[in-house]
Amino acid sequence: MTYSRKPTALFWVIGIIALLWNGLGVIAYLTKAFITEEMIATLPKEQQAEFLVEQPAWVTAAFAIAVFGGLLASILLLMKKKLAYTLFLVSAFAAIAQHAYLFTNVEITSIIMPAMVIVVCVFLVWYSKKSIRDRVLS
After folding, report:
1. Digit-coded pLDDT (tens) for 7-27
2. How many whole angstroms from its chain centre is CA 27?
3. Residue 7 region, left (φ>0) first, then alpha (ψ -120 to 50), else beta?
4. Torsion over CA of 49, 70, 18 and 50, rounded to 10 degrees?
5. pLDDT exceeds cutoff 70 at 46
6. pLDDT by residue (tens digit) across 52-64?
7. CB neighbour burial string for 21-49, b if at least 16 within 10 angstroms, e if fewer
8. Are 128 and 19 in contact (CB under 8 A)?
């Protein structure tokens, strides 16, 4: 016999924050993918360098998988679907792969945001797994 528990208010808060966080990730990806050279020229010099760095295609693919997978996982979490866990897991692996490349091959001016991305990914994997265990996701 399986039954679903009613989600707590914290579940909804975490779900909405996850959705917003991953939505911002999608915006960051789309900005990076579609920014023009004219737009880059208007940015401060340190930000210009970030957009002009050539990266292997797999890093760009990992970025896309991380943010779009995370966004879809967030939607599924709010829909209380178990598949959210699997997509958060895929998203986290993609984000970790992307950031491992950046840490080892690109001069990063601040480690705060990349570290935050990884911490949030790991947290969302853990939280979605916990939500399955607590029978909130079905």
Report:
1. 999 999 999 999 999 999 999
2. 11
3. beta
4. 0
5. no
6. 667 899 999 999 9
7. bbeebeeebeeeeeeeeeeeeeeeeeeee
8. no
Of 61, 68, 60, the residue nearest 24 (C-alpha): 68
Residue 108 makes CB contacts below 8 A (sequence gap 6+) with 102, 114
Tokens, residue 29: 């990806």
Grade residue 133 by pLDDT with cuts at 50, 70 and 90.
Answer: very high
Exposed, middle or buried, 97 (CB in 10 Å: 0-12/13-18/19+)? middle
User: Cβ-count burial of 112 within 10 angstroms (0-12 exposed, 13-18 middle, 19+ buried)?
Assistant: exposed
The answer, yes or no, to whether residue 44 has pLDDT greater than 70, is: yes
Running DSSP on this structure, what letter comes out for residue 79?
T
φ, ψ (nearest 5 deg) of residue 63: -60, -50
Alpha helix locations (H) across 35-56?
Answer: 37-41, 45-52
Chain centroid offset of residue 58 CA: 16
